[in-house]
Amino acid sequence: MNKQERIAAIKRIVEPYVQEKAALENLNEDTDFLKDLNINSAHLVDIILDVEDEFDIEIEDEAMEKMLTVGAALAIIEEKVK
Fold first, then answer.
1. pTM score
2. What does the mean pLDDT of the chain come to?
3. Which of 10, 43, 47, 57 could form a disulfide with 80 if both were Cys (CB 3.0 to 4.6 A apart)?
């Protein structure tokens, strides 16, 4: 799975939690889940669990705290799937 496919997977995962769907159109590595997509912190936990399921990985608490942007999520996913 390449980087664009991973971004597309993240987009699919976060879509149900985004109120304003237009915000998803500009999703990129700099997109902040809380600020740009207005996802609340409780839903961010759900997203992290969905990412773990999608990529068959386990994300430690320390990494979870850093997973606030699409780019951070990509970095964590890429590190875990190696």
1. 0.91
2. 94
3. 57
